[in-house]
Structures are given as structure tokens and as C-alpha cells.
Specification:
By secondary structure, the protein is of the alpha+beta class. Helices cover 21% and strands 27% of the residues.
């Protein structure tokens, strides 16, 4: 059953539910009913809402603050099923920053994202000289991890080890 409670600090203007839904009382005095407050999805994939003209909140954090006890005063709110848009109270839990960082498949996903193929190119002609399955393979041949990565990411370093580097 969905339960709505007032969001603390907003004089009853906003309601948050244990299912991660929000409602807002319209500014018009002629309307008495609450209307759904959708918010938006931020660049990290989390749903956010703007309360009170610029007071941004993550919806999962509001759910946790209003429905999940936090006796150990942990800081982070974790999505148990790793779905950033599943803001139901039963999918959320308080964690320390370290616990949240190491939770679930995050480490494996981060490692997998580092396995992008990288190309070593001739500095003068731009011809591909070698394809490495990942940056670590180029580092294993003696190239500098930081410099190659910065070069491939288009940062100030234009070349490394006498070569140009690009992500495939």
C-alpha cells in the first residue's frame, strides 16, 4: 500500500511516498488537491526534484529520510537492486560511503568500462600502428598509464611515448 507523508521543512507543500512518488500542492489557491511531481533524471541516472525554487533533492534520499531509520547515522542511500530509478522503500538502505562504493557489481562494471580498446598511432601521419585490447595492455608494454590516458581523452597531453593515442 502506498503511503504519502509530508516532506519535512516545506509546510505540507510536498508529499513523498514509500514507493518513491511525489506530489505537490499547486501554487494556485483555487486548487486544493495535490498534483504529481515528476522531476527529472540527472546525468548520473537518478531521479531529482526541485523543491522550493532551486532546492534540489534526490528522490531516493527523500524516501530514505522519511521511511528508513538511520540509527548509525550512515550517509549514503543504496539501491539494493542497483536500479537507480527504483525508489521504493524496500529497495533502499542506508550505507557508509565505503560500503556503497563497493556494493554489488559496481567494481566489476567499473573494471569492465576500463577495457576499451586503444590505438597507438604514428605521431606524424596518424596511421594506426597497433591496437591494444585495453589501456592496461599498452601499459604492460612500458607506456605510461596516466599520459596515454590523458592523450586518448584529448587532454593537454597531445602525445605519449612518441605516439598519438586514441580510444577505438
Amino acid at each position: 500500500m502506498e503511503i504519502f507523508v509530508p516532506v519535512e521543512g516545506y509546510n505540507g507543500r510536498y508529499l513523498i511516498s514509500n514507493q518513491g512518488n511525489m506530489k505537490c500542492r499547486p501554487r494556485s489557491r483555487s486548487k486544493k488537491d495535490y498534483v504529481p511531481l515528476k522531476g527529472w533524471i540527472d546525468k548520473h541516472g537518478y531521479r531529482r526534484v526541485d523543491l522550493n525554487d532551486g532546492d534540489e533533492w534526490l528522490v531516493h534520499r527523500l524516501v530514505a529520510l522519511h521511511f528508513i531509520p538511520n540509527p548509525l547515522q550512515k550517509y549514503s542511500v543504496n539501491h539494493k537492486n542497483e536500479d537507480k530509478l527504483d525508489n521504493r522503500v524496500e529497495n533502499l538502505e542506508w550505507m557508509s560511503l565505503a560500503e556503497n562504493t563497493n556494493y554489488g557489481s559496481r567494481t566489476a562494471r567499473a573494471a569492465e568500462s576500463q577495457k576499451k580498446p586503444i590505438l597507438r598511432l604514428d605521431k606524424h601521419t596518424g596511421v594506426v600502428l597497433q591496437r591494444y585490447p585495453c589501456l592496461q595492455a599498452a601499459v604492460a608494454e612500458g607506456y605510461n598509464h596516466s599520459a596515454v590516458s590523458r592523450c586518448a581523452n584529448g587532454m593537454k597531453v597531445k602525445s605519449s611515448g612518441g605516439f598519438l593515442w586514441k580510444w577505438e
